[in-house]
Amino acid sequence: MSAAVITRFAPSPTGFLHIGGARTALFNWLYAKRHGGKMLLRIEDTDRERSTEPAVAAILDGLTWLGLDWEGEPISQFARAERHREVAEQLIAAGRAYYCYASQEELTEMREKARAEGRPPRYDGRWRDRDPSEAPEGVKPVVRLKAPTEGETIVDDQVQGRVSFPNKDLDDLVLLRSDGTPTYMLAVVVDDHDMGITHIVRGDDHLTNAARQTLIYQAVDWDVPVMAHIPLIHGPDGAKLSKRHGALGAEAYRAMGYLPAAMRNYLARLGWSHGDDEIFSTEEMIGWFDLDAIGKSPSRFDFQKLQNLNGHYMRAADTDSLMADLMAFLPHVENGQPILDWLADPAHEAMLRMALPGLKDRAKTLVELVDSAGYLWATRPLDIDEKAAKLLGAEGARDIIAALHARLAALPEWSAESTEAAVRAYAEEVELKLGKAAQPLRAALTGRGTSPGIFDVLAVLGREESLARLLDQAQG
């Protein structure tokens, strides 16, 4: 590809970075990276009533969490309104746009007449060729594009193929409102041109917009960027994605404990494929990604698949990267700060690092990992859950714990191997199955009926803390 590829992600800051927007950003990012180009970020904040600074911050935060970087500073569409007006005035001067003085009543009448005749509601062009001197008193005009009324407008789409739109259905769209503010259609075209955008990758709900925007490009004599309109994401039941399906913000997925790398992998597979591959690194995605491998049908969001994929990424993660993901996750969950305070002690951080290999194999999300690691920062006397209380209340359980406390206290060296040997030797002597000894031991050490491997727990907690917890329960 000769020219440098420049893509853009252009969200409206009216809420969080939802899952569909995150995938659109990812596809733009991957395509730019694949071709050695760059992705720009434009905040489409022209809807002043609904655009908010917290929403802008949430979008930037979501992109950063996903690891999707952009070139330069984010561009505000609203800040460029003067430039948009300038282009509209150029079009008027060239005879390719005009002032329209049709009143609201006239527009309503046009729509009602069209409906009555079974036609789509369209502006009828009544001010296309009239002289502004005929304008009624006190009416502030809009500026409309003088669009072709015959023939067709073609969008050669990289995903949807060649799509034809009869020009009679596209009408003379408004470029400037009566108060002089630019419309979305004009602003998008001017911004994409001025930013040097070569490829527009966005949802297929913009396909009709693509035809209307093509008419503006042609009116200004600008090249039309390459377009790729990707199918929307549906829920598992095939209905449009809603909150019950997973149409949540990126921050919600972070709070649910998903890893950024797993989210990138999962989102890439929503609509794009590379053979039968399901799991691939970000580097592989960049190397393989292209627009012709995006399907035309809507993809289906599946929480179970996402969770399983996340579990794979957690098991495959090394201790350093998983620790980094965990430290980035904790500030965003309710109980995160006390854990961060506990981890500020280097000895405690070393304990968690030592525990991670045993923890990650049992967890599909960071929430599950933190939950199962809770025994590390639990304070004595431990809160005992229902299952653990039942184990500790069983006949002879406290005697087993007292005996094991004595055996373990006598060990000259403390490790998973030495503690396991001691517990096994005790179980054989008193003719107990290993599980019958290990279950009350687990309950006493963690306060829970389930935990990582009990000998790993002993090794991670260390001699002093392990013996103190056992003594608490032995004394009942």
Structure commentary:
The structure is a single chain. This protein is 49% helix and 10% strand. With 476 residues, the chain is mainly alpha-helical. Among the domains are: 79-230, HUPs (Rossmann fold, 3-Layer(aba) Sandwich), CATH 3.40.50; 386-474, Arc Repressor Mutant, subunit A (Orthogonal Bundle). The strands form five sheets. A three-stranded parallel β-sheet has the order 1-2-3. Helix 3 (81-93) packs across helix 5 (184-194), helix 17 (397-409) crosses helix 19 (434-446) and helix 17 crosses helix 20 (454-474).
CATH second-level architecture of the domain at 79-230? 3-Layer(aba) Sandwich
Number of strands: 12
CATH topology of the domain at 79-230: Rossmann fold
User: Biggest sheet: strands, sense, closure?
Assistant: 3 strands, parallel
Low-confidence spans: none
Helix content estimate: 40-55%
CATH superfamily of the domain at 79-230: HUPs
Mean pLDDT over the full residue set: 92
Task: State the helix count.
Answer: 20
**Strand residue percentage:** 5-15%
CATH first level of the domain at 79-230: which class?
Alpha Beta
* Structural category: mainly alpha
Side-by-side strand order of the widest sheet = 1-2-3
How large, in whole angstroms, is the Cα Rg? 31 Å
Distance between the termini: 74 Å
Gross geometry? elongated
